[in-house]
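Re: weekly structure request thread

Next one in the queue (379 aa):
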Amino acid sequence: MNIGIPKEIFPQEKRVALIPPSIDRLVKKGFEVTVEKNLGETIGLTDADYEKAGALVADREKILSSSDIVLRLRKPPEEEIAKLKKNSLHVSFLDPFNETKLIDAFAQNQISAVSMEMIPRSTIAQKMDALSSQANLAGYVAVILAAERINKILPMMMTPAGTIAPARVFVIGAGVAGLQAIATAKRLGARVEAFDTRPVVEEQVQSLGAKFIKIDLGETGQTKDGYAKALTPEQIQKQREGMAKICANADIVITTAQLFGRKAPLILTKDIVTQMKPGSVIVDMAVESGGNVEGSQPDQEVDIQGVRIIGLTNLPGRVAVHASQMYSSNLVNFLETFWDTETKQLSLNLEDSILQGCLITHHGQIVNETIKRLRESSE
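Done, posted below.
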């Protein structure tokens, strides 16, 4: 089977879908791999690096029309779907909850589409969970950005000129991104506090050396996939009131709260922001899905009464080398899971729990139950 990797065309995207070591693994399994010319130039890789790993280099049109499997990072432009080989497999992030026309185009053109953000959060699928691998890096980047923007140092220092107190960092949300943000801030010497609506993560927060903030919100919890459940308006108001005092004392606040497939909840109102100290910094990691902070703007840094709100998007793309390495590994692990070494074919067993979660279209139909129910409820 032939795998094709076209270049990413999303503006300012530096990550790539596959790197040479991953291609070497696939070629040894029996795949043929073709990459678009200059695929890896954004992370310092040449066509010769890919060819040395066993890949062929071709133009974009040939890759789209002749590949049995197309691997990308970002969702494709809708006009390219009709150019794909019939009955081929397309794997990338797809945002299937919001990209209705894109999903319809896959079905209409007989393309089997896998959405990488729909990989189940289960033990067996952990090695292919691209959403988590990229969120992990985003949590690290968020702290580094905040540390660079703030006009203080993070660690405590005892010097002949006096003692400098450690900066106070407050992380809202202790999922994959939040836990990495906590760990990174602690490594830099900050005093870290964290809050999450799921009491089950308290032990994880404490194991990283941070203080877990408890706010009584009544009945909360997490979904079967480990995501925080949506709060009621009353719970959201209680949460804001409980966090206001902590934010007022913080030097850095990092918000990570997102609801899978839905708009991010507004956590920090402008009233809370204006109570913070001038010179403090907020990083809104949910800005791409609506934002956790009132006033944050995608790809902008906004100043509200001396408080800087950083709303930069694509945080994993700021460490594109390692983000590409991790995503590439996720893709290879996915393909290897369903590769039959005897027949040299990809075996898509629709009864498999992983495929039931991430396969969106197959044989001209929308087969994902979550997306089908969403369509039915909106009709």
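The two ends are 39 Å apart (CA to CA). The CA atoms of residues 5 and 78 lie 17 Å apart.
Next request, please.
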